[in-house]
C-alpha cells in the first residue's frame, strides 16, 4: 500500500500539497474508484463543510477522473451555501453534481442531488419546483433493485420533504402519511437525525391543526433524538418550536427562557435562516412581556435579514409583531402601515390557502354533480328491477291461466329486453365511476393549483377552462348511449390536455383523421376511447425516458370499415407488468374490461360487427417499443343513417 501511495502521489502531482487540506484516506478513494456514498462520506466527513478543502478535492478529482468524488464535493458545497442562504450558488453546485451523476450513471448520487435541489427550492418557497425534484428522486430510489442504506436514506429524505410540501399546501393527512413512511425507514437504518427531523415536522403539523398537546409530544421526541446526536442545530429548531407553542398559549416567560440561548447557537452555526427564526421568536416573547424597546430591536433585525433572504413568511410575521408593538407604543400611524404590510406579505405567502379553498369548492361542486348522476342511474336501475319482478309474477299468472303461446313469447321477449337494459344501466354506472374518477379530479385540480401557486395565472385559467369544459362534456355525454365520432375525438383532446399537465406537457398527442371520412355521421359509444388513452399514459408512457408520443388515428381500413388506432411509443405491456409486479400496492384496472363489454352490447344492439385487438410493437432489435390498440367498426350507408340512440 505504501508503494502504491508513492506512485499515486507522483501521478497526481499536487496531491502532496492537498493532503494538508483533505483527509489521509483520499488516495484510497482515488485508487479504488469508490462509488459508495457511505464510504466516501466516512473519509471526507472532516472536510464536508470546509470550502477550500472541498474545492481542492474537486481539482484533484478532476485530474484523475474521480466522478463519485466530484458529485459528493459539489453536493456538500451546495449544502454549505444553502445554509448561508446563497441559494443561486447552492443551486449551481447541486446542478453540477446532478449532471455528473447522470452522465456517469451514479444513481444514488443523482437521487441525492435531486433531493438537495428540492430542499433549495423549498427554502425559496418554490413549492411546485421542489415537489417535482423530490418526486423524481423518490421514483428513482424506488426503481432500484438493490436498496442499500444510501438508497433508503434518500427515500426517507424524499418522503420527508414531500410531506413538508404537502403541509405547505394544507394537505395535513397526506403530509402525515409521508412523515410516518419516512420514520419507518429511519428506524430501520437507525438514523437518529432523520427521526429527529420527522418528529419535528409532525409537531409542526399538529401545531398547524391546533393540537398543541400532540405537537408538544412530537417536539419533545425530536429534541430527545437531537440530544442523542448532540446537534446544536436540532436544539435551536426544537427550542424555537416549543417556545412558539408557549407563546401561543400565553406562556411568554417560559418561551423566553428557551429562546435566549438559541440566538448565539444559531449565530455559531452560521445559518441565517435559523438566525431569523430565533431573533423573531425572541422579539415576539419580549413583546408579550412588555419589553418593547428590546423587542423592537430584535424584530427589526429579523425583518431585515428575512427580506435579504427572500423569506416571505418571516417578513410577514415580523410586520405583524411590529404592528402590535407600534400600537402599544402609541405610534398608531406606524402600526397601521405595519399592519398593511403584514397583510400584503401574508396574502402573497398564504395565497395557496385561498387557492386551496377555491379548488375544494370546485371539487365539491363537481363531486355533487357526479353523485347526483349516479343516484339517477341507481333509481333507474331500481325501476328496472321492479319491472322485472312484475314481469315474473305476470309470467307465472300467464302459465297458470294457459294464455296464448304468442303472449308468452311476448313476455319472454320483453323480459329479455329489460334484462339487457338493466345490464346496460349497470355498465353505464360502472363506466361513470371509472371515467373521471376522484384521483383524476384531485390530481388535475392540484396541477392547476400549482400553476396558481407559481403565479402562472394565464396557464391556470387556460387549464381551468379546459377542465371545466371536459367535466361538462363528460356529464353531458354520459346521458347518451352513443355520440358522433367527431364529439368523441374532441372530448379525448380535452382529456389529454388535462392529463398532460402532470407530465409537464411532455407527451406529444396527435389526432389524425383520413381525408374523406365523415366523423359527424359515424356514431360510437360515448367515452369509449378514454380507457385506452389512460392505459397508454400510465402503463406505457409514464415510465418511459425520452420522447413520449401518443397518436389517435382514424382510417378507412376496408370498404365498409373504419379502424380507430391508439398507438404509443411506451415501454410495452411486458415491461409494464414487471413494474406493476414490483409495486407494493397493486390496483386492478377494470376500465378495459368494461369498455369491451360496452362495445359488445352496443354493436349487438345496432346490428353491427366490430373487432378490438391490442398489439405489442417491437423494433428491429426485437425490443418492445410501444403498444397499438385497433378498434374496427362498421362504416356504411345503412349504419350511418341509423337514428341516434338514447337511454330508455
Task: Describe the overall structure.
- The chain has 648 residues and is an alpha+beta fold.
- Among the domains are: 233-349, Serine Threonine Protein Phosphatase 5, Tetratricopeptide repeat (Alpha Horseshoe); 350-479; 511-648, 2-Layer Sandwich (Heat Shock Protein 90), CATH 3.30.565.
- The protein is built from 29 helices and seven strands.
- It has helices at residues 2-12, 15-18, 26-32, 37-44, 51-64, 67-83, 87-103, 107-123, 127-143, 149-168, 172-189, 192-209, 212-229, 232-248, 252-259, 262-269, 272-288, 292-309, 312-328, 332-349, 351-400, 405-434, 438-453, 457-477, 485-499, 530-541, 573-582, 591-605, 637-640; strands at 482-484, 507-513, 523-525, 548-558, 561-568, 611-618, 624-634.
- β4 (548-558) and β5 (561-568) form a beta hairpin.
- α18 packs antiparallel against α19 (312-328).
- It is globular and about 100 Å long.
- The protein starts with a helix and ends in an 8-residue tail after the last helix.
Question: What keywords describe this structure?
Answer:
648 residues, 29 helices, single chain, disordered N terminus, Heat Shock Protein 90, five-stranded mixed β-sheet, two-stranded antiparallel ribbon, 7 strands, alpha+beta
Please specify the SSE layout and strand pairing.
Blueprint: H1 2-12, H2 15-18, H3 26-32, H4 37-44, H5 51-64, H6 67-83, H7 87-103, H8 107-123, H9 127-143, H10 149-168, H11 172-189, H12 192-209, H13 212-229, H14 232-248, H15 252-259, H16 262-269, H17 272-288, H18 292-309, H19 312-328, H20 332-349, H21 351-400, H22 405-434, H23 438-453, H24 457-477, E1 482-484, H25 485-499, E2 507-513, E3 523-525, H26 530-541, E4 548-558, E5 561-568, H27 573-582, H28 591-605, E6 611-618, E7 624-634, H29 637-640
Parallel strand pairs: 2-4
Antiparallel strand pairs: 1-3, 4-5, 5-7, 6-7
Helix pairs in contact: 5-6, 6-7, 6-8, 7-8, 8-9, 8-10, 9-10, 10-11, 10-12, 11-12, 12-13, 12-14, 13-14, 14-15, 14-16, 14-17, 15-17, 16-17, 17-18, 17-19, 18-19, 19-20, 21-22, 21-23, 22-28, 23-24, 24-25
